[in-house]
Amino acid sequence: MSTSHQNRPSLGDRWSIAAFSIAGGAIAAWIGVSAVMRIIVLAGGTNVPVTLEFVDGVADVALTDGSATVPMELDRGILVAPQLTPIAIVPGILGQLALIITVVTIVGCLLLLSRSIIGGRVFSRRNTALVATAGLTGLIGAAAARFFDNMLANATVSLMTENRLDTAVLTVEPFTWILAAFIVAVIMTAFTVGDRLQREKSALEKETEGLV
Questions:
Q1: Could you give phi then psi for residue 143, rounded to 5 degrees?
Q2: How far apart are CA 88 and CA 148, in angstroms?
Q3: In 3-state terms, what secondary structure has residue 57?
Q4: Which conformational region is residue 60 in: left (phi greater than 0), alpha (psi within -120 to 50 degrees), or beta?
Q5: 47, 81 contact by CB (below 8 A)
């Protein structure tokens, strides 16, 4: 009996992995369609909603009966730009393209990984490369998409208010990014060690073959 056949997951596990793969494909398709629709809106350049992040933003919000207003602190909001120029449109489209490439790459790598696991091969150089590609693409792609979105927001504020609106120039969430990088590094290390142990086990089995 081959090692691959012995290591094949159970029927229930295979169904779970298949369901996970289908869900991943559906998520990739949904994000891709949403990104394409956003690109179409950006390319049109008219009445484009743009998300802004404010610095010490305060707004007066009217009560339901209209008798008074109360001040509220705002950390983000949506500004509808009646007209955008290429200096804002281009980074907005690049951000959506970065999102599409990132999601498609990650889901593609995970689908290939799932197929390999269903076939009974968990740890291998190929699977380690797939995990590394998915993790690094996710980190770089998320940072790139956020960078271009910030460029779109800054260009929109500059065009519509001549920089008289106090918004964040560049927003970074270091804790989230560092945590994600740590998780990716742990997973990559686990697959690297698992691949090495798998190869050592196979070499040991070949050496001891026929001795018993």
A1: -65, -40
A2: 10
A3: strand
A4: beta
A5: yes
Tokens 């799932």 belong to residue: 114
Distance CA(49)–CA(40), nearest Å, equals 12
Question: Rounded CA gap, 34 and 152, in Å?
Answer: 18
In this structure, what token pair is assigned to residue 93? 């489209």
Strand partners, 54: 167
- Go through 58-76 and write b for each residue having 16 or more CB atoms within 10 A of its CB, e for each that does not: eeeeeeeeeeeeeeeeeee
Cβ count near 94 (within 10 Å): 19
| CB 167, CB 154: distance < 8 Å | yes
pLDDT > 50? residue 4: no
- Give the 3-state secondary structure of residue 59: strand
Is the separation of the CB atoms in 133 and 111 below 8 Å?
no
Task: Report residue 159 as tokens.
Answer: 């065009």
Encoded amino acid at 109, one letter: C
The single residue listed with the structure tokens 């291998």 is 124
pTM as predicted: 0.76
Query: What whole-number distance in Å separates Cα of residue 204 and Cα of residue 182?
Result: 33
Alpha-carbon span 148 to 160, nearest angstrom: 18
CA-to-CA distance for 54 and 181, rounded, in angstroms?
Answer: 27
19-28 pLDDT, tens digit each: 888 888 888 8
In angstroms, the CA 147 to CA 151 distance is 6
Strand, coil or helix: 172 = coil
